[in-house]
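Late entry, written up from scratch paper. The run itself happened at the end of the previous shift, but nothing got recorded in the book at the time, so transcribing now.
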Amino acid sequence: MKQIIEAQGGDPNITSNDIQVGQYTAEILASTEGYVIEFDNKWIIEIARLAGAPSDKGAGVAIHKKMGESVKKGDSILTIYAEKEFKLETALTTAQRTNPIIVEGMLLRRIPGIYGFQ
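Output as recorded:
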C-alpha cells in the first residue's frame, strides 16, 4: 500500500490516524440479522465517488464487516464520508437504493481458508 501511495505522489509514511475524514457522515445499517454474503464492489466504488472521492480528500467509505461475518439488525455495515453535504446526500441515496452489502439468512458452513476463516 505504501508503494501505491508513493507512486501517486503521496507520503508513504502516512498512517490511518493522519487521514482526516469529511465532516459529513452517514451510516448504512443492517436491515436484518444474518451474515454478510455479498459485496457489490461496483456500487461501493460509485458511492465513494458520489461522496467526492478521490478528488475530495476526506471523502470515501469505510466497510465495517467482512464476508461471512455475522451481523445483527441495526449494526453499522458501511460509513460514507463527504466534505460537502449535497455529495453525502447523493451518495447516501444511492447506497440505500442499491444495497451494496448484502446481509441474509443463515450461514450453512464455513470453509477454512476461504475469506480468512480459520
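The beta strands are 24-29, 34-39, 60-63, 70-71, 76-82, 101-104.
(Scratch paper discarded after transcription.)
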